[in-house]
Amino acid sequence: xxxxAIDAPRQGSTTDFLLAAGSPDAPAVVEAKRVVTYGQLRxxxxxILAALDARGVAPGSRIAILAENSAFWVAAYLAALHxxxxxxFSTKLPAAxxxxxxxxxxxxxxxxxxxxxxxxxxxxxDRPRVTDADLAGATPPAWPAAEVDLDQDAALMFTSxxxxxxxxxxxxxxxxxxxxxxxxxxxxxRADDRMLVVLPFFYCYGASLLHTHLRVGGSLALxxxxxxxxxxLQMIERERCTGxxxxxxxxxxxxxxxxxxxxxLPSLRHLQQAGGKLPPVLIEELVAAQPxxxxxxxxxxxxxxARLSYLPPDLLHAKLGSIGRGIPGVTLAVVDEHGDxxxxxxxxxxxxxxxNISPGYLGxxxxxxxxxxxxxxxxxxLAVVDExxxIFIVDRLADFIKSWGNRVSSQExxxxxxxxxxxxSAAAVGVPDPDAGEAIVLVAVRRRGSTLSEEDIAAHxxxxxxxxxxxxxxxxxxxxxxxxxxxxxKARVRDMVRGAGEA
Length: 503
Description:
The chain is α/β, with parallel strands linked by helices. Helix content is about 30%, strand content about 25%.
């Protein structure tokens, strides 16, 4: 199956594309204390564009966005896509890093909420700015016409930096539209879908939820307090959310530290998981937790505008542990070091091609050449493909542990550990060892109140894993290091271990 090509070199703005289906009186964004309709959202977008124009910001400028998930963030992003280039920033960055990145990216203006203006205002220097306070009481102007070149940048999205320093990925209007259309197709999204959003919009996965649900005229219910998962479950209930999307840590917390597994949430009709591998045991728990919901296991990267593959829910059990096959319009292959497809069962690197693949990184020709060689995206993920063409990730190339001459998958060790239901999360890393090359260390988090010991975990792993895969040591901690997107950062786990004298 292939996605529909967009042939015209220039079209109306991507904002128009995303808002075309939204009825003026229909809800677009649901916040804790208010509901914003599509009509109100369009009015705020027009207000922001007028304010940028009044401040002398030229069309095509890069516009920084710094705010928590909110109706204002959505309006700011849509305004930037309407003839400018959106540059979303994490609200977790130090002010000095914001200054550096804004200068490096060449941001001409900033859209930020009043809350963050107090702490980050100086980071943007004397750049023109528009805040949510500037919109209050302003008469919305007429909707401005705009056309975009589909192959020009729509946004710069920073990678998550779980294995290396973050980079700014160039996302074109064509990339965004193609990925949005593909996701809508395989999920079967409708105007009555309401997504509970716990992922930040500055993260490509979070942004894709915005793209897809607005495109079909659906709505987004914003939950910014997911550290208290019961709050999120209450919001699903109260707002009758039909969808939930999360990274592995999202579902680990829900399944092992909340009432999600026993609470009936009949409005949920689909659950989306991406942003890293969720161990098969937890996928099985997820299916059992909300049996009325279809579970979509997906795979993606920022360089692919978010999504690359999905596993159809009806194949979850038959292909447990697989990331599926390419989404509509995407071709995936598992290749050797020469770029040739490997036979079934032989490990190789996943490469991808399609209209959703970014043209490259901002200001980094060397990394662009390495990552996008030959017009294909090199994902950096090692995988095998079965006889039916379904892909199974073995590990990130950067996360393999080389111990006693063996290459050990950190994900396999973690998956074995998480069969202990008293564990919420786990991370396996390699640390330098003069004899083994790298010694395997497992760092894990227990359920609250659990008496599970490090020796209990070790005994389980000795009985479960091959001898060369059993960790040399196990550490129980209160929490694992996550980035601002909720994704595990293995480099920080290694630092934790080395700092504790495990090396």
